[in-house]
Amino acid sequence: MAKMVASLSVTPLGTGSTHLSAYVRAATEVLKEMGVKYRTGAGFTDIELDDYSTLAEILKRVEDKLASMGVKRVDFIIKIDRRMDEELTIEGKISKVERR
Predict the structure, then answer these.
(1) Thiamine-binding protein domain location, by residue (predicted)?
(2) pLDDT digits (tens, 9 = 90+) for 58-80
(3) pLDDT, tens only, 43-53
(4) What total number of domains does the chain contain?
(5) The pTM is what?
(6) CATH number, domain with residue 58
């Protein structure tokens, strides 16, 4: 189980198009390859992680993947919910809100 949930938004800049789905798909392919648990939403993708080094590796791999698609600049927005006292999951966070 994870100790943090990172919400990640990746915006490629200078692509000449307003369509982003191919880039979102490429980023989620990285997450699949790395075997991390994630859930893609309308604007952010939530990722369950145990440590910051895995997040850094995700950012590097996503950047490399987008660069291979011709992207010259990437804007990352990251929000991290970190627990030191107990496990933290995407489903757990959602179910607490839905129960109330």
Answers:
(1) 6-98
(2) 999 999 999 999 999 999 999 99
(3) 999 999 999 99
(4) 1
(5) 0.90
(6) 3.30.70.930
Sequence-ordered list of residues with C-beta below 8 angstroms from that of 22, at least 6 positions apart, any chain: 69
The region, left, alpha or beta by phi > 0 then psi within -120 to 50, assigned to residue 14 is left
Query: What is the residue whose two structure tokens read 């200078």?
Result: 14
- Enter the tokens of residue 40: 């893609």
DSSP-assigned states of every residue in the chain: --SEEEEEEEEEES-S-S--HHHHHHHHHHHHHHT--EEE-SS-EEEEES-HHHHHHHHHHHHHHHHHTT--EEEEEEEEEE-SSS---HHHHHHHHHH-
Pairing of strands 45-49, 38-40: antiparallel
Supply the range of the domain harboring residue 38: 4-99
